[in-house]
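Q: Could you fold this chain for me?
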Amino acid sequence: MQATQSAGGKRSSKSEEGAAKPKLPSFIKLYEVASVTKTQAPAGADGSWYKYVLEGGRSPITGMRRGNLKEVTEHAKRCAMELNERNSGKSPSAWAPRRSANQ
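A: Sure. Below is the predicted structure, expressed as structure tokens.
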């Protein structure tokens, strides 16, 4: 992830794919993938596991996922993007009531 700062002091971020990040209120920072590291599998699980950390929003988020480094990194990037969209108001809240097709 890349972060740039304009002459006016506003920070804007772009993902490696070049897509612009949603604009959030100035007091909320965008989530970004801070790290992805290999870790031990949880008890009773097998395979290759990685721990990822997302930082920048209201609080750091740590997750674990099975897969290879590339798969887990892509998953972490998608999580950060979805959190940023949800915080910007572009995506409905996970807690918002669902509308039926007839409404």
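A (continued): The first helix runs from residue 69 to 88.
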